[in-house]
Structure formats: C-alpha cells, structure tokens
Design goal:
The chain is of the alpha+beta class. It has helices at residues 25-32, 38-47, 68-80, 103-113, 162-174, and strands spanning 3-4, 53-56, 62-67, 88-91, 94-99, 126-128, 133-136, 146-151. The chain has a domain at 55-176.
Length: 203
C-alpha cells in the first residue's frame, strides 16, 4: 500500500499545503527499479535523500501530469468514491499521478472518445509513458514545490489504470459544468461505489 498522511477518502485535500510524505525503503526500491541501474540510484538516494531524481516512464509506471486544480479534484474523487490512488507527487504547480504502464497511450484515446478538451472541459492532462522521463521529489519528506503527497510505501504499490483515471477526470470535469450528467461510472450498475476497493500518450 501507499501512505497518505491526510485521511484517505477525505474530500478537499489542498495539494498546495498538504504535508509531504516520506518514501519508505520498499518504495525507494520500487522507484529505483525504473532506472537503468537500480543499485546506483539507491546509492545516490542514500547519500542525498533530499535531492529530486529523474526517472524513465513506461516500464514500471506511467505518469499522468495534471494542473493542480484538476489533479486535486481527481485525487479527491479517487479516494472518496473510487479505488484510491497510487503514489502522487506535487511538482512545480502540477500534480503527478503514477499509473500502470500503458496508461499514457490509452488514456488520451479514451479522453478523445469523450471529446475532452477545447471549451467543453479543462485542458487534457499530459501523459508520460515509454520514451519519457519525469522528475520525482526527494525521498525525504521535505516541504517545497516538489514533494510526495502519497509517497511510495511498498515494493509493488497498487496503481490506477486508464479506466479509473478516465472516470475521475470526467467526474472532475463535471464540476465545471453543473447539471451535466455524463452517465459514466467505473462501477457496475446497481452496485454502490462505497464498497469498491480496487479496479480491475503520448502528450
């Protein structure tokens, strides 16, 4: 599992002031497994835990990169009504949601199918997958523009896929258009979302 310092499922998480969380040794090993040389990455982090790192996407994780307002709504929905989130980081005014590999290719296709973008919705998120790299916050829980909101806490953390993220993005977009019923749900008809604990790019 990942660790969330604020209560899971608590709507209204202010990502601008939310406390940073600390990456566990198991979480660090997971992050390092995305690099070309995991041992070297761990050694560098051990010597300098307060320094951000650049990691490639596409093999261990993809990243959905959203503006803070949109990202906050998505994160609130994933915890309050959906399956929860994987690791999440704030970085220079953006929210980085770590997702299953392949999400960066699939999510833009799904968003296009929903006619996402333009005047009807918020700008489409950036999707980082194979061939891309992202800057991840320091392992240590330090305040600043780059920090973990939901830090990796396991060797194999659960990650949301494109379907869960599409659902949350569409629901978040609904907040900008009150009264619009998009009729989209990740839950089977007749089932209550309260009991659901799991759901199973290019720019």
């Amino acid at each position: 599992m990942t660790t969330l310092m604020t209560a899971p499922g608590c709507p209204g998480l202010d990502v601008r002031s939310a406390p940073a969380t600390h990456v566990t040794p198991q979480g660090a090993a997971w992050l390092a497994s995305a690099s070309a040389d995991p041992r070297r990455a761990l050694a560098l982090w051990g010597a300098r835990p307060g320094v951000p790192a650049v990691l490639p996407c596409g093999s261990v994780f993809d990243v959905v990169n959203a503006p803070l307002v949109t990202g906050r709504r998505v994160l609130d929905l994933l915890w309050a009504e959906g399956p929860g989130s994987g690791p999440v980081a704030a970085h220079r005014g953006r929210l980085l949601l770590f997702a299953t590999p392949g999400t960066a290719q699939r999510l833009p296709v799904l968003l296009a199918w929903e006619e996402w973008g333009g005047s009807r919705t918020a700008p489409a998120p950036l999707c980082h997958g194979r061939g891309d790299a992202v800057t991840v916050p320091p392992l240590a829980a330090t305040a600043g523009p780059s920090r973990w909101l939901v830090a990796p806490g396991a060797r194999q953390p659960w990650l949301p896929g494109p379907d869960a993220l599409l659902w949350a993005l569409v629901r978040a977009g609904r907040a900008d258009r009150p009264g619009t019923d998009l009729g989209i749900s990740i839950f089977p008809s007749g089932d209550s979302p309260a009991n659901v604990s799991d759901v199973s790019r290019r720019r």
